[in-house]
Amino acid sequence: MKNTNWKQIFEGDYLDIWQTPKSKDGKCDFVLALGGTHLFLRSDTVFPELKAATDAVSCEVFKPKEACYQ
Known about the structure:
The chain is α+β, with helices and mostly antiparallel strands. It is 23% helix and 31% strand. It has one domain (7-61). The mean pLDDT is 88.
């Protein structure tokens, strides 16, 4: 379903992220392509929230089990 006007931002083994062309107001969408599904994420609302969510998950998954030296 990739549109030829989309710019590929990330290519991974399991997912890709594409950017749609910017509209007249300068806004665009990011398209998360995962297993044949394309999810459109608004760049000004949904995508920043997704980033915050993945940061929170990463902190939880990869947090040190013991105190670390700083």
